[in-house]
Inverse folding.
């Protein structure tokens, strides 16, 4: 199977005409849910860091794949299988281009960022980690970038070491350098914390780590959504993300891995398609990425990564959307910092360090009460520990309230959020 | 007031508010007005599992009746438990064990809570029921 499939978006994307100079309104119109109401109030969806909504182009590709393009990949010679395989491999090429990876063979499809990290924790651990070795994660990680490493360390009798953030919530290369030792086998850190919303200096963190010959995995679940990612420029060894936060179908995930690592790692799961030859005397494995894609893949959902990436690229090219995103960050940062009752976690030194994701606590008001009241005003936000219990403990709180914006959110919605937040605080305090 | 009358009273009070936000305002007032729970009673064994916010429930038996006190770190949750305590505190174990807690559906509280909140509500109800069942077994 050749990976040099031509990446032709025109065939599957019915919205291509909108992608030239896309306006904010045109972007919003691709998401019918954004014009619905909850409790009689217009829906303001600010839980995008949990999952984004899907544009019509994604829904259409998904639907068409199920309705008229469904066949299993790579195995059969019939027309439907050939088309399904082409769609699936197109998505691989699209992701390769999106990340600027060296080749499609460095792109492994998984079920999500969690699965991608588990894959590396297991397979890298099997190949390279032994008793007494060390693995570094940061205190600001999502559970998905902590627990797989804990499990691997337990299995391998290795030691998990924790990188603290600086007082603002950023990871600092100097601190990482102090923590790295000759026993360190891998560093696993987030591009952007799902609680703090600050863009970590990943390029510098990777450089420091590489100075000591230690590979780096980046959890890009939030990073891929808000930053332009060039894996060759960052020079990370692994980059993991989920499709569903990037406007693609649920159950799609990506693991980028440098070829030299992927080829040296044993498979995570055994099964169909990941083999070279199978004999009872012993089985040999296929090369990456097939080696890591055992069993029937998410054949109908993976192709949705193509229109999702097109949508993201169009948003990034749109001056109006870029300006609105910047205005949201500035407005919300200003409003939150002016209110002495509110504590914001992840305060940037410069606005460019901050994505439109804001986690707060309010003196005298429980995060869950706030979320419940905001819900009744039509605003969807997240409350609780946000799968980052160590960071909550570290911050000395039982939970936070988080509002996370996507490219389709408006400054008007940000203003409504602040107005309603004030109203909710006044009701509670 | 009998258990039925008390429940009816709450259903009527809730029906006065059309907007959900007003119903929550009412719950917040109930929560704020609830008697403080001594800090030393906030122990692990009184903590109800399954709530996003922390809820402590204490139960005492006097003259064949159950008396509940409770607290939470979230004010709307305090309002909800205040509502439950107002209905069930001072009832006999048999009355509570035999009740279906259906009035909560009637006022729409269960559907209008987030799933984690609703689970918390179920946990609260189950804890109250368990206290009643324990106690009715003991008195036999």
């Amino acid at each position: 199977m050749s990976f040099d499939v031509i990446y032709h978006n025109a065939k599957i994307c019915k919205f291509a005409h909108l992608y030239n100079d896309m306006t904010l309104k045109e972007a919003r119109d691709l998401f019918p849910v954004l014009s619905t109401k909850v409790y009689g109030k217009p829906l303001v969806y600010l839980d995008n860091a949990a999952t984004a909504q899907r544009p019509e182009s994604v829904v259409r590709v998904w639907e068409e794949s199920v309705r008229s393009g469904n066949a299993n990949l790579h195995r059969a010679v019939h027309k439907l299988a050939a088309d399904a395989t082409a769609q699936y491999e197109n998505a691989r090429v699209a992701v390769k281009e999106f990340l600027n990876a060296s080749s499609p063979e460095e792109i492994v499809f998984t079920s999500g960022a969690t699965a991608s990290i588990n894959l590396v924790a297991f397979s890298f651990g099997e190949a390279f980690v032994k008793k007494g070795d060390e693995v570094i994660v940061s205190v600001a990680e999502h559970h998905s970038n902590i627990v797989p490493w804990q499990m691997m360390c337990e299995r391998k009798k290795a030691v998990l070491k924790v990188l603290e953030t600086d007082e603002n919530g950023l990871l600092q290369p100097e601190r990482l350098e102090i923590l790295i030792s000759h026993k360190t086998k891998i560093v696993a850190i987030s591009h952007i914390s799902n609680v703090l919303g600050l863009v970590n200096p990943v390029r510098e963190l990777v450089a420091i780590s590489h100075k000591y010959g230690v590979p780096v995995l980046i959890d890009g679940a939030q990073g891929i959504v808000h930053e332009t990612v060039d894996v060759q420029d960052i020079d990370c060894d692994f980059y993991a993300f989920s499709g569903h936060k990037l406007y693609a179908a649920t159950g799609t995930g990506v693991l980028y891995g440098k070829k030299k690592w992927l080829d040296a790692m044993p498979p995570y799961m055994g099964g169909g398609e990941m083999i070279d030859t199978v004999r009872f005397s012993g089985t040999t494995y296929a090369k990456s990425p097939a080696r890591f894609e055992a069993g029937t893949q998410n054949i109908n959902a993976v192709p949705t990564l193509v229109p999702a990436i097109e949508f993201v690229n169009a948003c990034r090219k749109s001056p109006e959307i870029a300006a609105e995103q910047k205005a949201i960050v500035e407005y919300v940062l200003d409003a939150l910092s002016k209110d002495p009752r509110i504590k914001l976690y992840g305060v940037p030194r410069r606005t460019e360090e901050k994505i439109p994701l804001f986690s707060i606590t309010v003196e005298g008001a429980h995060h869950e009460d706030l979320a419940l009241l905001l819900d009744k005003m039509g605003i969807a936000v997240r409350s609780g520990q946000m799968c980052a219990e160590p960071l909550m403990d570290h911050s000395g709180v039982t939970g936070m309230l988080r509002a996370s914006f996507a490219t389709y959110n408006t400054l008007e919605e940000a203003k409504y959020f602040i107005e309603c937040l004030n109203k909710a605080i006044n009701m509670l305090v | 007031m009998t258990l039925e009358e008390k429940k009816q009273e709450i259903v009527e009070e809730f029906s006065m508010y059309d907007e959900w936000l007003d119903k929550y305002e009412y719950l917040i007032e109930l929560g704020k007005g609830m008697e403080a729970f001594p800090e030393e009673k906030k122990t692990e064994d009184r903590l109800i599992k399954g709530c996003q916010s922390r809820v402590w429930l204490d139960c005492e038996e006097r003259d064949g009746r159950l008396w509940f006190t409770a607290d939470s770190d979230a004010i709307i949750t305090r309002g909800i438990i205040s509502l439950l305590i107002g209905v069930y505190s001072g009832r006999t174990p048999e009355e509570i064990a035999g009740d279906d807690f259906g009035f909560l559906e009637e006022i729409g509280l269960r559907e209008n809570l987030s799933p984690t909140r609703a689970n918390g509500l179920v946990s609260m109800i189950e804890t109250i029921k368990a206290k009643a069942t324990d106690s009715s077994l003991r008195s036999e």
The two ends of chain A are 64 Å apart (CA to CA). Chain A has a mean pLDDT of 92.
